Structure prediction request, 222 residues.
Amino acid sequence: MFSDVNQKITVLLKKLNQGWIPKVEDITQEKWERYKKSKSISAQKSFVGYTLGFGGQYFGGASPIKDRAYRLNYLTNKRKYLKTLKPHFTSSKFSIKHKSALDLDFKNTLIYCDPPYVKTAWRAKTKWNKKNEEAFWDKIVQWLEPSKNNIVIISNSERTMKKKGLRIKAIFKKKHKSQGSWNRFGEDKLRSEMLFLVTRTNTKQKTKKRKTSRKNRTKKKN
Prediction:
């Protein structure tokens, strides 16, 4: 099950689920501006906006890729890639919801979340703040109630939030060069991409271990 609060993404996934494949069209500057100014939401517009948008942002930047042959080839390759994923999108097990993660609940589920990086992503300043981040982690605490039997994996940077009652263990880490407007003057700064497995801390086990270690120390002294 895929869920996103952004309708520009869910509309694309719903069309792919119906067997639709995007068309390759030459996006001139005129077309780019027309698409960008329009308030309409469609799967084709999302395909164009995210594929050619600067840094993967929806219609990011003032223009598409300037070289015509290159942008057509780029769109063609993205279309081919989506075509290879078609069996997954059209599977009867695949479902899409246009909802916030904070409105969802699960049982016996592997949950993967990719929230904005509140300390490193410039978009977080307007789309995701500390209050949103805290509400998100409160929701994770609910998902990890023992009776729900869920597994939670989070994408984030090295500076992930600490939450009482949760253990956040890094299971993957990769550094890559920063791109986009946050990389000023073309500096080769490295950003971390990490995956974290989030589990509940077992306070009972910790208490038992402490009691056992105290007994052992007493025995040694005797």
Strands lie at 2-3, 96-97, 110-113, 151-156, 166-177, 190-200. The chain has eight helices and six strands. The mean pLDDT is 84. Residues 2-93 form one domain.
